[in-house]
Write a structure and sequence with these properties.
The protein has one helix spanning 2-37; strands at 45-59, 66-81, 86-99, 102-116, 123-135, 144-159, 163-175, 184-199. The chain is α+β, with helices and mostly antiparallel strands and 202 residues long. A hairpin with a 4-residue loop joins strand 2 (66-81) and strand 3.
Length: 202
């Protein structure tokens, strides 16, 4: 009796193991595919539009007036993945600044390189280095601000096969800030944005 029960149990376990083997193999295949899919392969084109807005007030001690400042930046950027890790980027920048009712707009360009690290779970860490120029008085060297270096580090969260949500923290040094010779500024920049991969290499 006990022997028949033991044999029946052994047969049942063997059948269950054989039936579950394809499922486990299928799960392994899906996991490997997902891991491969969560990289940014060579040949991929990335489009990263970004918008940043800031507004602040400043009151000088001993003065009754309050200074108000507003800054709006729009930077559409294109990137091309030359390998599974390295990506070269280029883009345009529009910066609109307002100070106490006086406003000015500068147009410029940016260029740089991004290193995409190996995926960590559902995340892809990255770091970037770049430079840029903002032209406050036409496209010549007078009244031109130089952004160098532009250093960022962050992480991508890939969404499906053609998009990602990005969070980053960076540093920018601006020489000839606001187009004024001899004036410089340093900025810490925190950002959240979206990237689209309209031409995704599989």
């Amino acid at each position: 009796m006990k022997t028949r029960w033991f044999v029946s149990a052994l047969v049942s376990l063997s059948v269950a193991a054989l039936l579950s083997a394809p499922l486990r193999a299928g799960a392994t295949t899906i996991t490997a595919h997902e891991k491969m899919y969560r990289t940014v392969p060579a040949g991929t084109i990335e489009f990263s539009p970004s918008v940043s807005y800031s507004h602040w007030n400043m009151k000088r001690e001993g003065y009754g007036n309050v200074d108000t400042f507003t800054k709006l930046e729009i930077t559409p950027t294109l990137g091309y993945c030359v390998s599974d890790h390295f990506e070269v980027t280029g883009g345009f920048m529009t910066r609109h600044e307002s100070s106490n009712g006086n406003s000015e707009t500068a147009l410029g360009t940016t260029a740089g390189v991004i290193y995409n690290f190996n995926p960590q779970g559902g995340f892809v860490p990255f770091a970037s280095l770049g430079f840029g120029a903002l032209f406050y008085d036409g496209f010549h060297l007078d009244n031109t601000a130089v952004l160098a270096p532009m250093v960022n580090a962050g992480v991508r969260v890939l969404v499906g096969s053609s998009a990602s949500v990005n969070a980053s923290l960076g540093f920018q040094h601006e020489a000839n800030a606001q187009g004024e010779s001899g004036l410089s500024s340093n900025r810490l920049v925190a950002g959240v944005g979206v990237s689209l991969f309209p031409w995704h290499s599989h």
